[in-house]
């Protein structure tokens, strides 16, 4: 017993002594955490260089875009073929993804050899071989008559400009087939298939094995956003934000980047940590000076590294009593599988067995030393991989702007899987280097073939989805011819509204406003203005001063109009308005002054004078009873009388468009058109009196309130209305009315978008096919959300945040589609509005017999002001449809309340002039 203990003690001492000796000898292969963090920082810089447009050409880490924009979401299905070419064997799989009770994957595969003479021969021979193997596989599967989608895992650095293209940059991993570098491997394979002529295949995607691994693992865990291969070669990919990928247009969503990290250090970045053994490996390789990081860490070179160390130590008399055998001197005799075997539980006996086969007669000391050399070389590999992975994880964390990152890394490769200690060492070092990242390492059980099938399923689904979404949104894309036709029809409706004969049946009512003049600068005095047109009601005191320094001073207060008042009785509505005026006069201390008042009333009214307006119909959600067909000025005066607190001189009732025109005309005399593009949509303009048959007199001009929102109520726009427009109209408070307004105003655009989103969700293109209660809720999509979603400054994560705020659990892909839908709907709205405006300005030009017209349009409304693209698209449309008009758009900064005061001032001025005469 004592003898056994003494022997064990002696052996431990011996082992410790040998370990220390090896540690000292291979000191340069052991790194402190400080060094590892420094290498991690260097790789982070290389990542950024590879992503930058200017720095990419000289970057060693190429950061190749893969055009894979999404990990599996569980909706994939179909029958696919996957090819996997990247090592000494070539694998073909048939992958069936089905949805019954749950998603299931069935795989059948066959392995074909790729002989040395083929991988070192011509490219034509290589791809003929691949095509021959594929033909054999399809025959065995009895599917030669089918054209199945094919995913091609091609594990070499490729530049891609689309998913089904791969330009080979350089061969790696012993491959050297001539005439392939710089060529599209998909075209070469298609050519080889076509040459055979006995089957057809639809190659939809070419992916790297790292991408295949990420997609395979992403099928099981949707948090997976990194893929790593640690086998014969090594590489990684991860999901990068599009806004950081300079090499690809667009900044929406994410795209998988194939880092090609094997070339890290090719620019000398790792010279301080490369050893003499690394340099010797490189000199003897097929590609000297390239893939230097890969040569330090991957399975292809690990056994050879150990062999070179053993040879040198033997030469120096530190091993095998200085004996060197021809086997030990033979390249490739010490393989990576031997490293794994020697580091196993029975490692010392394995070491003796392997070394004996190499012709040396190892002592116990020698076996311990060789085992420790293997441990140092494999540990260095795990540590270096941990630094590069750590850099990717910190980048993901920074991209997401989160304090802690929770993610999954999909991983594959013989070294990671077969080496007994490798995975544990890698995980431990990663957790030490990036403690703020919670990482799950998920082993890819079925290689990268299943992932290639997943990418193909995604590509097939995306192609079908893109086509169907494009077909849906095509109805909203109006051609130049269609827009010219809308302009022509608007002109016809304008003429109908102005004509006495057709005015009663006209949809565009062309209501005379009795505003005969824009401000001339002599207006002076204190005026009260009311502004009613939405859920809020404004009361304003406007002090206008004429003279050399014209000034307009305004005081105002906003009051809410509750829904029960909007939809109650007329008496309740006007009592509420008068109560608000009373409060405002108290607030201003002006209860006793009898001020002239202008009333901006943004609903269709038929006027018989400046101070009389009969309400034609309520719009914008108002439904107060006993008002339609009544003079709203009389209703206001009766409300004031009922209150018996104050008296006012109601001089003018005006529409908000007219108020807007007058506000802008005060600043710019050439302003003769008013436009509102907000909750509602309407326009007014100065028409020649001779053309207004519904008012006596031919002299001068009068402002006409078009009430163009009703354009199309006679069916003249039915050919461009979509099923979504009809659905919104059918469920509105005034079905069949204001159809043009419902296609281009802020009140309805969100509803059109919501209806499209419901349809796309039903068809499985959005929100995983789940229609949430939120999405069923009318009015959930306010126009302000459209404006936010379409903002160019908003990253997709922020769009997702908006959708999640609305209770819509969306992916980045969903966000891209939602943004596209919003863009199509708002673009059409701006174009329709522009077509209407083009009809107006061309009419004014023709009225005046001009070849060219310079004119200003005063504009107001939230859609015009807040939407990021509406105004630009509308301006462009007017320019294209009315090329003989130079139209300037002037934003009304003070709303239509100031305009009401100015109209009142003009009215008072004209009244005084009449009294004097």
TrEMBL record:
Coiled coil, from the record: none
Domain Hexokinase C-terminal, residue spans: 226-457, 673-906
Principal location class: cytoplasm
One Pfam family here: Hexokinase_2
SUPFAM superfamilies assigned: Actin-like ATPase domain
UniProt-annotated location(s): Cytoplasm; Mitochondrion membrane
Gene3D superfamilies assigned: 3.30.420.40, 3.40.367.20
Catalytic activity field: D-glucose + ATP = D-glucose 6-phosphate + ADP + H(+); a D-hexose + ATP = a D-hexose 6-phosphate + ADP + H(+)
Keywords assigned: ATP-binding, Cytoplasm, Glycolysis, Kinase, Membrane, Mitochondrion, Nucleotide-binding, Repeat, Transferase
Pathway(s): Carbohydrate metabolism; hexose metabolism; Carbohydrate degradation; glycolysis; D-glyceraldehyde 3-phosphate and glycerone phosphate from D-glucose: step 1/4
All copies of domain Hexokinase N-terminal, residue ranges: 22-218, 469-666
Entry keyword annotation includes Transmembrane helix: no
Enzyme category, top tier: transferase
Record-stated family: Belongs to the hexokinase family.
The name this protein goes by in its record: hexokinase
Gene source species: Chanos chanos (Milkfish)
Organism lineage: Eukaryota, Metazoa, Chordata, Craniata, Vertebrata
